[in-house]
Structure formats: C-alpha cells, structure tokens
Amino acid sequence: MAQNEAVDVVLVGAGIMSATLAVLLKELDPALRLEVVEAMDSGAAESSNPWNNAGTGHAGLCELNYTPQAADGSVDIKKAVNINTQFEVSKQFWAYLIRKDAFGTPKAFINPLPHLSYVSGDKGVAFLKKRYEALKPHHAFAEMAYTEDKTVLEQWIPLMMPGRDPAERLAATRVIGGTDVNFGALTNKLLGYLGQTQDATVKYSQKVVGLRRGAAGGWTVDIKDVNGGSTRQVDARFVFLGAGGAALPLLQASGIDEGKGFGGFPVSGQWLRCDNPEVVNRHQAKVYSQAAVGSPPMSVPHLDTRMVDGKKSLLFGPYAGFTTKFLKHGSLMDLPLSVRLSNIGPMLAVARDNMDLTRYLVNEVRQSMDQRLASLRKFYPEAKAEDWRLEVAGQRVQIIKKDPKKGGVLQFGTELVAAKDGTLAALLGASPGASVTVSIMLELIERCFPEQYANTWGSKLAEIFPAREKALASDAELYRRVSAQSNEALELVQPALGSGERYA
C-alpha cells in the first residue's frame, strides 16, 4: 500500500484567510511543511475576489452598524474601536512584508480613500452627531470631521449633492485617512510569496472530499483532482478550514465536538457597478449610510470607489438575495446537506425568530432594475440607468449557533471554531472578515499553537507586530506612532484637500 503524503499543515481554500495564515506560519517557523488546497483553478476566486467583496478596508470609520445606539440614546463605540485596531494590526503585517520587499508596490492592493458616513432627516442627523461626539475623543477617530453644511458636503461628496431637495436635512462625517483594499490582489501576492518559500505549495483544482482523524493524532485529508478525478491522501498535524462557505460542511465532516450545533444561512448579493469615468471621477470616497428600518446589518447601503487592477469603478449596494448554495460556484444542495440532528433545533429557531429577514430577502429578490436604481438615487439623485449594470457578488454564509434562551441565533460576524487539542480550526461567517484577517489568524495561532506562541515565536511576533489591539486601543501615542509607520511603508499618503476644504 502506498504511503500517504505527509505535511505539517493543510490549509483548505486559497482565499485571504488561508493565504494570511500560511504566510504567518512560515514567517514564524520557516521549517514548517505547508500545503494550500483550492478547488478552483486560481486563488481568491470566491469571497476574496474584489468583485465578490465590496466591503473593503473595514476600519470602523464609516460603518454605522458598528456603533449601535441604545434605548437611552447613547452610542456604543466598542466594536468600532476593536475593528479599527484590528485593521491596524493587519496593516502592520502588510507593512512588514512590504519592507521585506516580499511583493512589490503596495498600491497594487491598498490605496488611500476617505471614509464617510452620510445620513438624512432629523433622526438620522441626531444619531450621526451623537456617534461623532462618542467617537471623536478616542484617538483612533481623532481625524474625524462632522458637518451639516451643504457647502462642505458639496466638497466632500460632489457626486451625491446635485438634484436634492434644498429643504432636505443632511449630515456626514469624514475620515480623510481611510483606505480601499483589493483583497483579491493581496491574496494572490501572499500566495505568490508563499510559493517562493521552501516546503510550501499551493495546489489548484484540488477539492477536499474527506477528513478524518489520523492514526498519529493528526488528520488524514482526502483530496480529489477536479479535472482528472484521481484522489490522494495527505496526513497533516494541523488542518485549517478557510474555505469560506465550504468551511461549515468540512467542519461537520471532521466530527469535532466544538463544531456541533453550528448551522449556516446563505445570503447572496448583488451590486450596481459603474465604470463611466465621467461619473467615477466625481466620487472619491467610501460612503456608508443607515439600513432601512427592519433590515439586517448586511443591508447597510454604501457607494464605494473601488480600485481594481489599476482601474477605478463605483459600486453601490448591496442588494441581497437567497440561494441554498454556500459558495458562488457551489451546489444548490449545500444548505439541505448541512442539516444535522445537532443543528436542526437552532436552525428552526432562527427561522421562527427571523421572519423579517425572510421577508426582506424575498422583497430583495423580487426587485426590478428600476427599484434598484431608485435606491441608488437616494445616494446619487442624478444617476442614469445606462451608466450602471448589475454585478453578482459572492456568497455569505451567516452563522447559526445554539443559544440557551432562544434555541438558536443568527450571527452576523465571524467565528473561529477550534478543536480542543488544537489540531483543526475553521473560520465561519462573514463581515468584517477580510479586513481583520490578521487578528483572527493570530488568535488561531495562540489557540492552536499555544506553546510556540508563548515561547519560541514570541520574538518574531514582536518584530512583525509592534503593537496589538488592546495596546493600540488604550495608548494614543503608541497608536499614532505605529499607524504612521505602517502608513509610510504602505505609501498611504493622505490626499490633498481641495480649495476651501477643511478637515473639521
């Protein structure tokens, strides 16, 4: 009998999660033998693809759903601060690789772009002002500016102002030092860098079809060649399931206790895209607003400038949809085949408690192009139909998990699930995902490689990461210094202000 291939680590999926973890592990221990396995014929083909992932560069600067308002009117900024500092940790890792001359110019994947929050109406303006007053004193948001002055708004968002009712009350905040990140380009740079190191391979058109405990305590992974149909077995001491929507079925196949009870709720997405330079060049920003009353957090509308392969476009959305696929290139049987005795209770409870979400998705699916354009015109009143086309985005599989009170809850976020013995981990969920990948992968390393993390890898981690989230959140001077160092390496020069513009 032929002996199985043997490696230290198998990473399933060639997206931003696996690519980040693989490079981090090789930087910490160059002797590790790694294999990345991807079912598609290229990297970043699903959620990491720039056209499948419009919410790029999440830093808590403009996303209003990260600062919920309590019944007493107060605004909670903890999540925004956490996401902001996690994004700063990601920037430290990218800056470290740029300084190593690991993958050329940073402009291929990250560019400066102002982040704005925009609202209308008395209620929206009152909320945004409270949000600004809560965030502004924190050093991570010290550069935030607020205005209700329409003359200033015409400078900040010139595309969005013409054609409005003069009596309409508007407000916006702006942080000039936001970014746009092409996570597809970044993923492929990470994979390319990984391929240059010893004992690291990235294999495409290879699908994981089986996963079971190995005789030596690790895992045996059954891998099928998508094109030829042959199968092979790889023994690994550690397995990471970073395959986006496909991570849940693989986690279930592993049989680990920690994965029981999880279910998935797939949500598809669509965007309106504009490539007309006359329109695109009038909007240089990422602008977020509020979701409609009763709509889920994933529905927060935004009008984004995107830089992909050196060309600028605008995306507006999202428009949600529903399919039973867990991946854009998945199967309609993904959802039904994910139902287990351990998760059917939480899934039924979520179905019972989220009828508003079901109605929302049904209405979204039934929307006509005219209705989608009507939503766009709330942002951009003079939008012309001929300038915009519909793009199908990637799949998001929201997490369903057990809840002692409700039976099950639908969770809009990401969750790291790891085996007790540290030999397997999976990442479930969606936003803010890619932007905080590095922090999530550092948490994985701490949980699954605790001895190395605490001892042998400490000095290298300190070299790559001058400061982590908690220190960045509490130490203003440290935050400013470390952020400035990352920005310099990543060439994130703040755009010059135009005539008459002001930061605050």
From TrEMBL:
Pfam family, one: Mqo
Entry keywords, A to Z: FAD, Flavoprotein, Membrane, Oxidoreductase, Transmembrane, Transmembrane helix, Tricarboxylic acid cycle
Catalytic activity from the UniProt record: (S)-malate + a quinone = a quinol + oxaloacetate
Cofactor(s) needed: FAD
Single Gene Ontology MF annotation: L-malate dehydrogenase (quinone) activity
InterPro entries linked: FAD/NAD-bd_sf, MQO
Top-level enzyme category: oxidoreductase
Coiled coil: none
Pathway: Carbohydrate metabolism; tricarboxylic acid cycle; oxaloacetate from (S)-malate (quinone route): step 1/1
E.C. numbers: 1.1.5.4
Keyword Membrane: yes
Domain of life: Bacteria
Regions crossing the membrane: 6-25
Family: Belongs to the MQO family.
UniProt name for this protein: Probable malate:quinone oxidoreductase
Protein species of origin: Pseudomonas typographi
Gene that encodes the chain: mqo
